[in-house]
């Protein structure tokens, strides 16, 4: 991983802000801090910002501070200036995300389509995509260029940033098969370039440092007849329409497929197809998809997920691992304990 720019020392704004506050510890970001950071950036910076509308599940509490950088330089400036103690969380299109009801401490960053949504071809015919671009747009660009290997992106409703982090895949193809290089900004505001190997890909996982925010990806495909690409994209769409609840408030597959198993078959065998807690339900159409039937809160969804993990373990002897990411904190007194199988 090569470093492109040097780290500029943190401004110490957080400590300055802290020293003016009556208590240290889990404290809210202050108006002081907001006032100090706002003049440094060109993007939009908002306190107490509702996140639910930015997620497919439409649940969860607000971000303490929400930042939409104008471009990579703006993002780097912000991260350099932000004191190291302030937690940072990045979200994409929220299609694989439960935001907990208590909201998210620190800063939540969402890359704007204007600054990070470009998709183009480079001189070598590779696809260069800003990470706010939807996967579908990359699939469309590949079709336009006659590049095969991207039809699976036509069916995944996330952004390229989320696809890079999750190693998103479908129909026998995965993000890691197409990625050449990724540009990322770390927590100190330093820009890095990561090779495919640096991304440390595994099934629905990248081991690239959690503090990296991906800003651009370079992809390679193989020449393919446009009619064949179009047919593959149509097949992807057709399958989704008939097999998945894609018009519901959902997060896609709730659990990863354990080695040698299909998660949905385990959920089904445990008798949990259609099972509900509050407004959260394991879909009757595809029982590894969890849905918000209307009035679910994050605690309903996470409680249902943990109930499913427990029942599948008790009845099928297999421990399911969440694919959906959960971020933020529980409301006080409304915590959900993660199921831990008994020792031995
Ligand atoms: C109807 C439906 C169908 C789905 N089908 C599939 C499928 O077939 N295959 C599949 O793999 N997934 C599927 N998903 C899940 C989801 O679309 C993917 O995981 C997607 O890649 C998530 O992208 P996102 O932009 O929505 O990320 P988010 O859900 O917003 O975030 C997911 C993770 O990515 C991280 N992240 C987001 N942007 C960045 C960034 N710029 N830099 C660093 N980290 C980042 C977040 O921190 C978080 O950890 C489906 C979801 C739905 C709702």
Characterization of this structure:
There is one protein chain. It is globular, with a radius of gyration of 21 Å. It has two domains: 1-243, Uridine Diphospho-n-acetylenolpyruvylglucosamine Reductase, domain 3; 247-327, UDP-N-acetylenolpyruvoylglucosamine reductase, C-terminal domain (Uridine Diphospho-n-acetylenolpyruvylglucosamine Reductase, domain 1, Alpha-Beta Complex), CATH 3.90.78.10. The chain is an alpha+beta fold. It is built from nine helices and 22 strands. Flavin-adenine dinucleotide binds at residues 56, 90-97, 111, 131, 155-159, 161-163, 165-166, 168-170, 213-214, 244, 246, 250-252, 325.
Feature tags:
25% strand; alpha+beta; Uridine Diphospho-n-acetylenolpyruvylglucosamine Reductase, domain 1; 2 domains; binds flavin-adenine dinucleotide; 6-stranded antiparallel beta sheet; 344 residues; Uridine Diphospho-n-acetylenolpyruvylglucosamine Reductase, domain 3; 4-stranded mixed beta sheet; disordered N terminus
What's the overall geometry?
globular
Ions, cofactors and other bound molecules: flavin-adenine dinucleotide
* Assembly level: single chain
CATH level-3 fold name of the largest domain: Uridine Diphospho-n-acetylenolpyruvylglucosamine Reductase, domain 3
Tell me how many strands there are: 22
Helix content: 25-40%
> What is the CATH architecture descriptor of the largest domain?
2-Layer Sandwich
Radius of gyration: 21 Å
Give the neighbour order of strands across the main sheet.
1-13-12-16-8-7
Largest sheet: 6 strands, antiparallel
Name the beta content range.
15-25%
Mean pLDDT: 92
Distance between the termini: 41 Å
Number of domain modules: 2
CATH class of the largest domain: Alpha Beta
Catalogue the unreliable spans.
1-27
């Amino acid at each position: 991983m090569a470093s492109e720019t040097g780290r500029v020392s943190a401004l110490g704004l957080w400590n300055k802000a802290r020293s003016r506050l009556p208590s240290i510890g889990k404290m809210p970001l202050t108006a002081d801090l907001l006032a100090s950071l706002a003049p440094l950036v060109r993007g939009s910076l908002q306190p107490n910002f509702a996140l639910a509308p930015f997620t497919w599940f439409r649940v969860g509490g607000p971000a303490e501070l929400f930042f939409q950088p104008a471009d990579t330089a703006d993002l780097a400036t912000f991260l350099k200036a932000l004191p190291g103690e302030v937690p940072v969380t990045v979200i994409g299109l929220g299609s694989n995300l439960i935001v907990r009801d208590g909201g998210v401490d620190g800063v939540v960053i969402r890359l704007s389509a204007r600054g990070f949504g470009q998709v183009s071809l480079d001189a070598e015919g590779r696809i260069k995509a800003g990470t706010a671009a939807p996967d579908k747009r990359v699939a469309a660009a590949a079709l336009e260029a006659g590049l095969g290997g991207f039809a699976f992106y036509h069916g995944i409703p996330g952004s390229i940033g989320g696809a890079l982090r999750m190693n998103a895949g479908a129909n026998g193809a995965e993000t890691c098969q197409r990625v050449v290089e990724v540009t990322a900004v770390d927590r100190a505001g330093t820009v890095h370039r990561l090779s495919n190997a640096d991304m440390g890909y595994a099934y629905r996982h990248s081991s690239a440092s959690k503090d990296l925010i991906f800003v651009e990806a370079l992809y390679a495909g193989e020449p393919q007849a446009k009619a064949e690409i179009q047919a593959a994209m149509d097949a992807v769409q057709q399958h989704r329409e008939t097999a998945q609840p894609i018009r519901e408030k959902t997060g896609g597959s709730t659990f990863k497929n354990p080695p040698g198993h299909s998660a949905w078959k385990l959920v089904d065998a445990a008798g949990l197809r259609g099972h509900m807690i509050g407004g959260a339900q394991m879909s009757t159409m595809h029982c590894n998809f969890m849905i918000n039937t209307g009035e679910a809160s994050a605690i309903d969804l996470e409680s249902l997920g943990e109930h499913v993990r427990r029942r599948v373990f008790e009845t099928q002897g297999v421990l399911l691992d969440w694919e959906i990411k959960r971020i933020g904190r529980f409301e006080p007194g409304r915590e959900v304990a993660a199921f831990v199988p008994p020792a031995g």
